[in-house]
Amino acid sequence: MLSNIRIVLVQTFHPGNIGAAARAMKTMGLTNLVLVNPRCFPDEEATRLAAGATDVLEKALVVTSLEDAVQDCVQVVGASARLRSLPLPHFDEPDDMAEQVISNATNAPVALVFGRERSGLTNDEIRCCTHQVSIPANPEYGILNLSQAVQILAYETHRAWRKRDASDFSYQRPLEATPPSREQFVHFQDHLGRLMQQSGFLTQPHARTEEQLQALFSRAQPSRKELSLLRGLLSAFEAHLPK
Question: CA angle, 83 as apex, 80 and 86 as ends, to 5°?
């Protein structure tokens, strides 16, 4: 699905912005870059600012017109800082755009188009698009660098994708946060129950007490490491009980 999403940069002036955009793309799982008449590409500055995303640059397609870049796309979204008086559907919020882009990208190519650093897209280039999108910002200073705009729309697109069940996206978590297995939790409960009996806290079986403690630890949701720490604490107490 993400492979069907194409980032199109039109007549980028600074090659470093191409590299920074490639980096922004790769962090969000996008790898399909098309350049329309870049002033200078390939270029060492682009490679330097790509910072590990040189594979995106190496696969980038250079074309001579926006029409060539998007002719096979079912949806073409032009990013524009100013609202045009053209009869095109306009997304006020990038997340609304991203939901539709992801839906369309399920079966066919779509494109997000970004214009020149200073002047953006021309009206004729906007007419090549099916939709427009703006990034809400400070009305007194809403100026975004090209790669920043790419990063924001790429993030929203990736966010819409990972919210789908079919994405199988796995959030990164520290190993210490891994929850214990059911077997480990049962061993802990048995250890706790045994120690409560041996210590005299329970003089006879109290199922209700043990159920309440089990509910307490279930709500606490200790990690595997934390449960191991509790087991160690129980063992230390157990070692000081009369034999």
Answer: 100
